[in-house]
Amino acid sequence: MIKHLFGLKSFERALFGEHPIPMWVCDPVTLRFLDVNDAAADLYGYSREELLLRTVDRMGPLENICSPRLEYGVTTATHLRKDGSAIRVQLHTAPVAYQGVPAVLATAYDVTRFLEAEERLARSEQALALAQDTAHLGVFSHDRRTGERRWSEQVYRILGLQPGVAVAVEGFWPFTEREDAQRVRTEVLRARSERRPYRIDHRIVRPDGSTCDVHERGQWHYDASGEWDFHFGTIQDITDRAQAEAEIRYLAFHDPLTKLLNRTGVINRLESVLASSPRQELVAVLCLDINRFKIINDTLGHATGDAVLSAVAQRLQSRLQEGELLARLGGDEFAVVLPGMHHPSQIARRTHHVLQAFQTPYTIASYPYAVSASAGVSVFPSDASDSDELLRNADVAMYAAKSKSPGGFQYYNAGLREAAERRFNLERGLRHALQCGEFAMRYQPLVDAESGAVVAAEALIRWERADRTMTFPDDFIPFAERTNLIHEIGDWVFNNVFAQVQRWWNAGAAVRTWLNVSAAQLDPKLPAKLQALLNEYRLDVDCIGLELTETAFIERGDDVLQILRDIKAMGIRLALDDFGVKYSSLDYLQRLPIDVLKIDRIFVSGVHENPVNRAIVQAILTVARELNFEVSAEGIETQQEMEALTSLGCDTLQGYFFSGALSAEELTPLLSCTRS
Predict the structure, then answer these.
(1) 3-class DSSP state for residue 20?
(2) CA angle 654, 655, 658 (to 5 degrees)
(3) 305 φ, ψ to 5°?
(4) Which of 136, 351, 384, 564 could serve as a FRET partner for 128 with CA atoms 20 to 30 Å apart?
């Protein structure tokens, strides 16, 4: 039945005329345009009056429109604009009554860029398939009917055998490392009995005793009776990839600078300690923070700061007894686990002993540095019942110790008024900053590693107080994340950055701007919020990207995955920031819909002369290539670091070597003036 969508109502006419989607109405017999809206005129490059003098068939082949039948339809066609350029449009048509006369209503979506992207993707996939076909993979087969077994030369090379040696075994079980042999045999035989292909990673032991990691894939062909008669597959040496994955697995539980346990590692170990602790014993957790460490970094540089952290770690380790644990929680914060305690006085003695590590100055590059630390102490089971709570309470006590008696220690108690007052003052200051406009945005450019051109920028918030003091996000964002303030601050950042990106876009400066998003902001409403902002500021999704930390995924788990998938489906790119510093879980890398890995500054520093950092960066790059991620390196401060990271294959680079964080006005001249 024809829908009466167009009559004499001015409201309906306004909806049609001002709708942002190109729309027009035509006579199904004469194909003459009866009405068009402004968006359709803009799409085809004509004035509205010019289009009303034309017929639909002069715009391009529209088979379903050309039919006099009134029906619903969807078609994709090539149309010509007034200037002769071709566009691809997707037309949705429906019968309507226009001023009492049967007509056809069409909405036209410009899908030119989308279809071009699909074609490029198809060509890319074809090229990838060709590359895979020509890759050096070992190929094997076994014809059960004839008994013939064939291996390609690559199989012999992987197994460490001379090509041409008679093959008298089925599969690679005789060459598989003993620990893997039963698992491999079971999986292969199960796949055969279930009539399905198999994929399995295992380790090969060569005749000379050397080993390599391989990825084996295989399947069977079955005869008419259902018995298998042909077995074939490939085997690939993945030793380099396996080593890279092992490096990242190590990073999941260890701090790369000090080689100590990281937060995840110590929590895992602490849980085991608590579970096995006898009822009559106490377990104490110490959180230590180096006092005024920021001054060392700001005045002497991060290299000296890292050297101090490494020296502190070594000295603390030397003061521990058997069974005690030491971890670096991040930044200048360490944790010590003291199991098997029997009395509070024993805990006090051990804490004093640990803090004595700071009595003697540290010598770095022949210069002495006096370093002190404050500690907070939390005791199981009186202060907390699990590892997370123990660490949190020790951290609260540590901040109380820093404000009360730097260099000493504070036991946790439920009434730490200093901490409560600090939280209150910080929250009041942040609310004042929102109301009085004390926040400001800065932008640090990202450059293409090959060309050196500025291709993106990272948006960074700053708190510029009335007394002209500058507060950086590390000093207030963690607190805001624990309150609802992060949503108010986040909304302020979104609106300011989107508005600035629109100004750049209108000026012809088109680069992607990356926004940092915290775990607390990843709620189901975020995709809709982003879409509303894109619509409000009329921005393409290519203009915006989101940076997220590993903490966001670890803390939230699977519930955050769908939110990220929805954002990715919008076309917004996602980057994993500070990769390798905390958890670096390969499982999350495989599951998360991210596009870019950002290598943290700690691995970038001295990468040109530090073989460990270079190996870690290479490992991250290897895994990134396997997973089709782009890689960006941040914190570059020297030309040597820049050259090393470029040679290793990083895609984009960021750091003070290129530029610090700039105001929008300072960054604008550096941006490309060509829209991409």
Answers:
(1) coil
(2) 90
(3) -60, -45
(4) 564
Tell the residue number behind the tokens 């024993």, with chain if given: 346
Within 10 A of 643 (CB to CB), how many other CB atoms are there?
14
Average pLDDT, the chain: 85
Q: Which residue has the tokens 């003091």?
A: 469
Assess contact for 607 and 637: CB atoms under 8 A: no
Give one DSSP letter per residue of 194-263, joined into a string.
Answer: TT--EEEEEEEE-TTS-EEEEEEEEEEEE-TTS-EEEEEEEEEE-HHHHHHHHHHHHHHHB-TTT-SB-H
Q: How far apart are CA 172 and CA 134, in angstroms?
A: 23
287 within 8 A of 373, measured Cβ to Cβ: no
Superfamily covering domain 258-415: Reverse transcriptase/Diguanylate cyclase domain (3.30.70.270)
At position 548, the amino acid (one-letter code) is: L
pLDDT tens readout for residues 58-87: 886 544 444 434 567 888 888 888 888 888
Query: For 81-156, where are the E strands, in sequence order?
Result: 86-98, 101-110, 138-143, 149-151
SS3 per-residue string spanning 447-471 = EECCCCCEEEEEEEEEEECCCCCEE
**Distance separating the N- and C-terminal Cα atoms of the chain:** 45
User: What is the fold, at CATH topology level, of the domain defined by 3-114?
Assistant: Beta-Lactamase (3.30.450)
Domain-by-domain residue ranges, the chain?
A: 3-114, 138-237, 258-415
* H helix or E strand, kind and range, residue 327: strand 325-330
Q: SS3 breakdown of the chain: % helix, strand, coil, rounded to 5?
A: 45, 25, 30
Per-residue H/E/C for 36-69: ECHHHHHHHCCCHHHHCCCEHHHCCCCHHHHCCC
**CA 47 vs CA 38, 39, 51, 312, 576: distances in Å:** 8, 10, 6, 74, 47
Q: Which CATH architecture has domain 138-237?
A: 2-Layer Sandwich (3.30)
Tokens of 228: 């298998």
The DSSP bridge partners found for residue 545 are 514, 573
